[in-house]
Amino acid sequence: MATTEKHAFQAEIAQLLEIVIHSLYTDKEIFVRELISNAADASEKLKFLQTSGTEIFQPDAPLTISVSTDDQAKTITFTDSGIGMTHGELIDNLGTIAHSGSKAFLEQLKASKADANLIGQFGVGFYSAFMAGEKVTVFTRSYQSGEQGWIWSSDGQTGYEIEPADDLPRGTKVVIQLRDTEFAQATRVEHVIRHYSSFVPFPIELNGKTVNTVQALWTKSKSEITDTEYEEFYKFVGHDSEPPKYRLHFSADAPLAIRALLFVPGKSFEHLSMTRGDSEVNLYCKKILIQPKAKALFPEWLRFLRGVVDSEDLPLNISRETMQDSALLRKLNEVLTKRVLKWLDEEAKGDPAKYDEFFAQHGHCLKEGVASDWSHREAIAKLLRFESSYTEKSKTTSLTDYVSRMPEEQKEIYYLLAPSRESAEASPYFEVFREKKFEVLYLSDPRDEFVMEHLREFDKKRVIAAEKADLKLDEKPNALSEEDARLVANFIKEQLTDRVDEVRVSKRLVGSPAVVVDSDPTMTASMRRVIKMMNREGTPDMQSKPNLEINPDHPIMVKMNSMRTADAALAGEVAAQIFDNALVAAGLMEDPRAMLTRLNSLLEKLLSPA
Ligand code: ADP
Ligand code: MG
To answer: Is 95 in the pocket of ligand 1 (CB under 6 A)?
Structure first.
């Protein structure tokens, strides 16, 4: 009498299943794609073992994937002769979540923000079987001789059971007891298979009839491939239902023999999941899968790529473990990275508007590249796009174009971090640039500033924050004499000793009375903001005091000059208010309520008859 073991699902799986069963009503068909994809993965793994000379149970079983439907019994069955699973593997693979991204997916699903269609990208595709099925039974036998067969079954609710099975062939058979007959209809299923799985590199039979043409698309020449074929292939490798944004199909012979078919997805799923994705480019050697999702193929900042790289130069018997450090892989990585950078650059030039859409989705990866990959920094920087004082609202410029517009007397590249274009243009830091007609890049994400800090230079020109620019307006007589301006500065400094470091007479202000400038040359106001945010509960504020620059041409400063002797108390209050206003303009004001008492007292004075 066979013994049946009962197991509970890991908590996360139970939650996932709860949602899959009760709340996902659209895109149900994707379960067909996911189960075929698993069968294909298992077959690819077997093919790899064959080439590496491992001993395999039933070595001659053909690597075909068969699907059969039975509308009387309301079942659909997926059978493969891939590597199968041992008892331990069944528990590990079909009862626990191994991938960290899956938990994030779960969170998103709960908040119903995630697209169920993406389930495969999160490494939990198997469970989509429960979208259409009320019971799933898995018959499986590992390729390892000496292993017996097992039957795993579950209703997706009360856990799963495992019992031994006699005499199973190698591989896996998944039988789904469907809730209704939709996916027990051959025509319906054939449609889904053709849609998502045409490029599975193994024959797929539906009720005994082959429905796909097996082809390694990347080995064919471009002229033999239609756009539709490319697109279907992408949907298969990218687990996506939308067409890709870009595709690159190229081959090279030197320095390495490479055939690659790469895609950029239309949407970044990192935005959806708030987690980092993994590269999903599969590495082949002469059409044999050497490593799925081969991390070493590309630097991490190109992790948005999907597709296939095939290189004949790889030794077939390369072990998956030593892959990571192989010199050959490093070389491959180098060649591919250069090629991809060139490709993106061409796409950007060819259709700037389309590139902007790409950049909105995947630009954060490129920025990460600028900050982390010294060896490709300049080339990646060419691919960055920013709004600027030159571009129209929500249009962007490249650094290259920025440089080409620089007037001769401009030596550096400037950027200004501000929450919006409007606030950048109203910023006191921008005044000198407007006067001099120097272009300023507008950064809207605080992280962008760190990217610029890392970039430091582009085309041999320093890249610096607008507030750090050593720029002066053209010399002209000011409303205040040099001497008076200095006296006003000294007066303000006395009033604010505790809060400012230096008070200087500014040469860059036009319309604002004053501006704060960080006293630390390596800091900017926005970096202060970020640091403050991170240090919320940290040690007492170690922050140094900022400098204040005053505008010797501004009416307030002119009046301050007479007021500091006529009514020093009032002038002192005004000085404090000017400083607070400058902090607000720099986005450094922490609690504006503190200044309200003073502001009210000033208003009162303003309203009382002289
Ligand atoms: P993923 O395929 O992304 O790993 P799934 O949820 O689709 O995630 O599958 C989980 C795991 O279950 C797979 O990684 C694999 O180890 C195992 N598995 C699923 N289907 C099969 C199969 N047909 N043959 C062998 N192993 C399988
Ligand atoms: Mg899968």
So the answer is: no
Q: Checking DSSP bridges between strand 306-311 and strand 280-285, what pairing results, if any? A: parallel
Q: In CATH, what class is 386-468?
A: alpha beta
State how far Cα 38 lies from the chain centre.
Answer: 26
Would the CB of 104 count as within 6 Å of ligand 1? no
CA 38 to ligand 1 centroid distance, Å: 5
Confidence of residue 572 (pLDDT cuts 50, 70, 90): very high
Which tens digits make up the pLDDT trace of 212-256? 876 788 989 999 999 998 998 898 888 888 899 999 999 998 888
Mutate to test the pocket of ligand 1, among 32, 33, 37, 41 (most ligand atoms within 8 A of CB): 41
DSSP strands (E only) in 64-185: 65-70, 75-80, 133-141, 149-154, 160-165, 171-178
**Domain ranges in the chain with CATH number 3.40.50.11260:** 386-468
Name the closest ligand to CA 140: 1
pLDDT in tens, 101-153: 667 777 777 776 666 666 776 778 899 999 999 999 999 999 999 999 999 99
- Residue closest via CA to ligand 1's atom 23 equals 39
Residues of the chain with CATH 3.30.565.10: 5-210
Kindly state if the Cβ of 34 falls inside 6 Å of ligand 1. Answer: yes
Higher pLDDT, 20 or 302: 302
Sheet containing strand 413-417, strands side by side: 387-388, 440-443, 413-417, 461-465, 457-458
Q: State in words which class domain 482-522+531-607 has.
A: mainly alpha
Q: What are phi and psi of 124, to 5 degrees?
A: -130, 30
Ligand 1 near 85 CB (within 6 A): yes
Q: Would you say domain 217-356 falls under CATH 3.30.230.80?
A: yes
Ligand nearest to the CA of 127: 1
Domain 5-210: assigned CATH number: 3.30.565.10
